[in-house]
Amino acid sequence: MFRSLHARALCALAVGSVLLSATACSSAESATKDDAVQSGSSCAALDPSLAWYGDNRVRLDAMMTEFGTCGAAGDVDDGAPLALFDWDNTVVKNDIGSATAFWMIKNNKVLQPAGADWATTSRFMTPAGAAALSAACGSETAPGQPLVTSTDLDCADEIVAVLEEKTRDGQVAFDGYDHRRTKAAYAWAVQLMAGHTEDEITEYARAARAENLAAAEGSDQTVGT
Fold first, then answer.
1. What is the mean pLDDT of the chain?
2. 4 in the Ramachandran plot: left (φ > 0), alpha (ψ -120 to 50) or beta?
3. DSSP states of 94-160 as a string?
4. Quick check: 118 and 134 in contact, CB under 8 A?
5. How far is the C-alpha of 181 from the C-alpha of 195, rounded, in Å?
6. b/e string for 176-187 if b means 16 or more Cβ within 10 A?
7. Can you give the pTM of this predicted structure?
8. Which residues on neighbouring strands pair with residue 7, listed in sequence order?
9. CB 144: neighbour CB atoms within 10 A?
10. Distance (Å) of CA 155 to CA 23, 126, 150, 188, 224
């Protein structure tokens, strides 16, 4: 089974949130987009000293000047407006969570679950999903120890398949959750990190990010087979 992650080394607009302060709001609202951006309005306060891709900063400043409402200065809890930007496949191309999960599979960082029972890894895991993972990954590895997924390609392939919501033979891997509020396979990518410390997960995420940014734009990576 083939699963690949397009590792596009695109310049990313790293904006998690933007706080807009109160002063000069009324003048910015009456100005044109370009004038507002160039005027240094507090309603358009993205840092021009950072390395922005293309005209992203100017366009975001213009959007906030046109649609933003300046509130209290300081913390959001005190009334300062907050702009939120979706991350995966919006601010950056592809999914950083998937990239980290794939890196963990390739580097033997997924641990054998408690009792070698994959049903313990997600309350939404179906019996078919748990059985497929148990059959592929076996019980020889002690619980809490790394599965050798860099060479045990049968196990790696089944994990990747379940991350795509179905087993390799096409059975549903997750069920019983509210599809309007979550996606169990996405949550499971995080649950695969169980047993590692916060510092370890940070290290894995950084390694995955570095690997993907170093890859040629449009290139693929193979996880499992």
1. 79
2. beta
3. S-HHHHHHHHHHHTT-PBPPGGG-GGGG-TTB-HHHHHHHHHHH-S-SPTTSBP-TTT-HHHHHHHH
4. yes
5. 26
6. eeeeeeeebbbb
7. 0.66
8. 219
9. 11
10. 58, 17, 9, 16, 8
In sequence order, what are the residues at sequence separation of 6 or more whose Cβ sits closer than 8 angstroms to the Cβ of residue 67?
none
Residues 6+ apart with CB under 8 A from 45: 18, 19, 20, 21
Dig out the tokens for 89 from the structure.
């496949």
Structure tokens at 149: 């997924």
Place of tokens 């607009």: 13
pLDDT in tens, 35-53: 444 444 456 568 888 888 8
Distances (CA, A) of 224 to 66, 143, 151: 48, 22, 8
Angle at 218 between CA 213 and CA 223, to 5 degrees: 75
